[in-house]
Amino acid sequence: MHKAWEYYDEIASRYDYMYEEPYWVLYHMLLEKLVSDQNIKGKILDLGTGTGRWAIKLAEEGADIVAVDPSEKMLSVAKMKARLNDVKIEFINAKGEALPFENATFDSVLAMGDVISYCESPQELLSEINRVLKPEGKF
């Protein structure tokens, strides 16, 4: 059985193109509105960043972003896109169930898409999110 990150390694180079159909364009427009309405500030963890769509958007708005993904190839695409968009993002190759951060590090944690369903242990993932999120943080 393949791990989710292995699948994403295989499709990393074409991932963004898979979401150019009208349904996905509208879906992402609605999500962008929802994310903007949350007024997310401070240090943000983008968990399961994939190709960096949300990390780059928030970095362009001035947020301090740390982007994590278990797929090295997805991170490679995200790093390239961040360079092209001239934004500073810290990228880390790690699984959400074992985050390499101190307790209460982040003001907000994003886990966009199906991040929770793709992890090996949803309970461990949620526990890690709770651990790295500041007491009044947003998830």
From TrEMBL:
Keyword Transferase part of the UniProt annotation: yes
Keyword Methyltransferase: yes
Ranges of residues in domain Methyltransferase: 44-137
SUPFAM superfamilies noted in UniProt: S-adenosyl-L-methionine-dependent methyltransferases
Origin: domain of life: Bacteria
Keywords carried by this UniProt record: Methyltransferase, Transferase
InterPro entries: Methyltransf_25, SAM-dependent_MTases_sf
GO MF, one annotated term: methyltransferase activity
A Pfam family recorded for this sequence: Methyltransf_25
BP term (GO), one: methylation
PANTHER family for this protein: 2-METHOXY-6-POLYPRENYL-1,4-BENZOQUINOL METHYLASE, MITOCHONDRIAL, METHYLTRANSFERASE
Name under which the protein is recorded: Class I SAM-dependent methyltransferase
